[in-house]
Amino acid sequence: MSDSGKFESVEKRVSYGIGRQMAEQLMSNPFDGLSADAVAEGLTDMMAGRDSQVSEENLHQAFKVISERMQAKQAEEAKAAAGEGEAFLADNAKRDGVVTLASGLQYEVINEGSGDKPSASSTVRTHYHGTLINGSVFDSSYDRGEPAEFPVNGVIAGWTEALQMMPVGSKWRLYVPHQLAYGERGAGAAIAPFSTLVFDVELLDIVS
């Protein structure tokens, strides 16, 4: 795509780029009814030193209303995600070979190793592949082509519990309810709040 002739100077190009960066930030967490025209007016008035066209009181009230709407929407989405995870685990528990622990963690053995089992204070080397219940991959040491090392007690609770039951050489599939994963906060853009996670975990070695 060729450049528009409107931005012939470096100053205008950078100014345009700043506008796009601001828009990207706004669109990363938008609300229903977000108006690009109103954003542009606010930006123009501020940079020109003009008084606000909306009083501080009305701005504060409007921000409060939109914040409450967004929180309510997020709560509904989180409730739906939690329900989907619970339904998935309930169905999964009925499958042959799936073990459900008192904590709610589920696992099935793909390969059973014969080595030692790590303790909570151990550091282990693993290969793993993590997905959401819809199959979307959010992290994979296999894809990176390099195993990961970490302390057993330094990962999510579902992993900490499972690893201490796995002999070295084992490969298990873990089904981790949200309360044993990233809970109500989620993790970045890939893992939403209240997400149930699925991991293939291969315990390669106990490092220390």
Q: How would you characterize this protein structure?
A:
The protein has 208 residues and is of the alpha+beta class. It has two domains: 11-73, no CATH class; 80-206, Chitinase A, domain 3, CATH 3.10.50.40. It has helices at 10-28, 36-48, 56-92, 141-144, 157-163, and strands at 99-100, 106-111, 123-132, 137-140, 148-151, 171-176, 197-206. Strands 1, 2, 3, 4, 5, 6 and 7 form a seven-stranded antiparallel β-sheet that branches. It is elongated. The protein starts with 9 loop residues before the first helix and ends with a strand.
Compact overview of the structure:
With 208 residues, the chain is α+β, with helices and mostly antiparallel strands. It is 38% helix and 20% strand. It starts with 9 loop residues before the first helix and ends with a strand.
Radius of gyration: 24 Å
Q: Would you report the number of β strands?
A: 7
Low-confidence stretches: none
Backbone structural class: alpha+beta
The portion of residues forming beta strands comes to 15-25%
| CATH level-3 fold name of the largest domain | Chitinase A, domain 3
Shape: elongated
CA(first)-CA(last) distance: 55 Å
Organism: Simiduia aestuariiviva
Domain PPIase FKBP-type: 121-207
Catalytic activity: [protein]-peptidylproline (omega=180) = [protein]-peptidylproline (omega=0)
Pfam family, one: FKBP_C
